[in-house]
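User: Predict structure, ligand adenosine-5'-diphosphate.
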Amino acid sequence: MSSLSLKNISVVYNENSSFSKKALDNINVDFPEGKIIGIIGKTGSGKSTLASLLNGLIQPTSGQVLLDNKDIWEDPKKIRDVRFKVGLSFQYPEYQLFGETVREDISFGPKNMGLSEKEIAERVNAAALFCGIDPKVMNNSPFELSGGQRRRVAIAGIVAMDPSILVLDEPASGLDPVGREEILGGIVRNSKERGTTTIIISHSMEDIAKYVDRIVVMNKGSKMLDDEPKKVFAHYEELEKVGLAAPQVTYMMHALAEKGIPVNTQATTISEAVETITQTLKK
Ligand code: ADP
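Assistant: Predicted complex:
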């Protein structure tokens, strides 16, 4: 298990050129051990830049990325070790599948780590279980699987490297509701059980609201909010001004309250809404 934090991080692309672009402006974020943190923001807000910093794919222009309180760039030669500890799944990772079988694909990372055959097999089986992959498909071609299943195979390839921190960039995008629930519900629940610090990047609050301990809202390269989901959604009017939306249920609860119906406006899921509305009706 590990913790990560970003201290006074700024990232400027193409510095000293007329194309210079400040993608992150003095960001401070903590990702404590074992917590599930969501990073939300609309396109261009700096989410992918932030994700690429976390496992040392890019170096900050200023500031520090601390992994277990140690600056990951202190010794640039050791950055490979950081990439093993912080597993990053890019958007649409299933496009990078190439193995003839699901097993071969998931094995690629651990094989590169120089583990024994036995360790590789154990890691691959554990990662498949973690990601909810049916053992029956392990010897099938990944290309025979559905989009959601292929994505789980791709994520399992990262989990098989046994990272202590898992970063998932838009893990649910483009999937139907069942696929989304399988990825977010399944993988995130397993992360929580195993104590893997997990960072989920998304442009949709609604998708990740119920799975995360905290939400960091990014806007134009700055951190706008950083709090528990319910406290973040209480700012739903400000969120809307920057092109983000709270869960639909938040709007419904506020609309009911405005009409004088005393419901709990902090309800964000359907079951919480049902509960507070039922209580109000009983009164
Ligand atoms: P998001 O993931 O939220 O869409 P990004 O981190 O991709 O945001 O981008 C943040 C800003 O940095 C955007 O204005 C984007 O155009 C710019 N940017 C991202 N990557 C590069 C790059 N490699 N070179 C120049 N500008 C970039």
